[in-house]
Amino acid sequence: MNAINTKVTPTKRKQVALFSSDANFKRDVATRLDALAIYDVRVSETGEFLKGPPADTRPGIVILDLGNGELLGRPGIVEARALWATVPLIAVSDELSSEQTRVLVRMNASDWLHKPLDGKELLNAVTFHDTGNQGTKSRIITFISASGGAGATTLALSAAEHLASKSTERGASTCLVDLDFQSANCGAYLNQFNQFDLGGIIGQPERLDVELMDVIKLSRPSGLTLYSFERPQLPFEPQGADFVFRLLDLVAYRFDDIVIDLPNIETRWHNSVLSTSDEIFIVFELNVASLRQGKRLYKKIRELRGNAVSITLVANKHKRKWFGNHFSRSELEKIFKAPHIKSVALDNALLADALNRAILPAEVDGRARFNKDLKRMFKERLDDAAK
């Protein structure tokens, strides 16, 4: 059983401009944000704010320490704020007078925090106002089975590891989210179990922040981050959906490639995930029941998204000869009215060995036909598509 991983993995940093003349405040804020390995904090004296942003770069967030509010009485303070355009401004100060508060409102401050500063409030404010303008938009890759046991979880694990293993940087920026709270199979397949008790967070989803995300994650040697929790009652809890949406928001904020294992059951987040995914893999088996469910799911996603999303249809567990499965490739294309259906070989011995050893199929035998099929499909649908 894996212990909770408290190590923060480096990832792409976003710029935060911190203006303060308080040495202790500057040290505390910069230390806390830098420790998350998400932000690059540029520290300047308070008066430098009046000069506007540097010509060569524009930060994603500005934190302005106003102290006792004296700066708010300086001529041109409102005009100086305009130089920063729409960059979110988080103001921090002691108690302000009514006149100082009016000036702060005219400056269009995005948020205000009271000194002495609560570190958790700071993190929540920065997370809330960070629009992600400094980073590349995250790519969301969703795997969903047309029927039970079709194999989407194995393919999701393999896809995430395929992306993460390309380099140290890719590993740090790749995440797998297991939305099967009934069994948490992504973690179970690898014999990794999350020991964190979600009970205190489900009822208060706002407690989940970027700092806590690093505490509750599971990790792979490649650097891949995995979020997998076994909590069968979560879909039925009043704030369960709020927790899931916050989890997904934070991983989208933190990682470049997000692979999601999405069960084919109606939950409050099911359509939302399908609506925001960039790549969707529908995994089905070559039998009538699975094909019927696969066609229904494909039609639903097309009605939901039109042609705005790339959908890959995966015929899993096929025998070496197509006619041995009673369905030819051309027949499958007619059923789905879609070309280029991918196929993955049936290899029960390989998959059983991988499960029993709690490793991925590629780690058992990378030359197996099953793994060659996956590698070819991922290269075409994920690697080439990202170029």
TrEMBL record:
Stretches assigned to the AAA domain: 139-306
Organism domain of life: Bacteria
PANTHER family documented for this protein: SEPTUM SITE-DETERMINING PROTEIN MIND HOMOLOG, CHLOROPLASTIC-RELATED, SLR0110 PROTEIN
SUPFAM superfamilies: CheY-like, P-loop containing nucleoside triphosphate hydrolases
GO cellular component terms, A-Z: cytoplasmic side of plasma membrane; cytosol
Organism listed in the record: Mesorhizobium neociceri
Protein name as catalogued: AAA family ATPase
One GO MF term attached to the UniProt entry: ATP binding
InterPro entries: AAA_dom, CheY-like_superfamily, P-loop_NTPase, ParA/MinD_ATPase
Gene Ontology process terms (BP): negative regulation of cell division
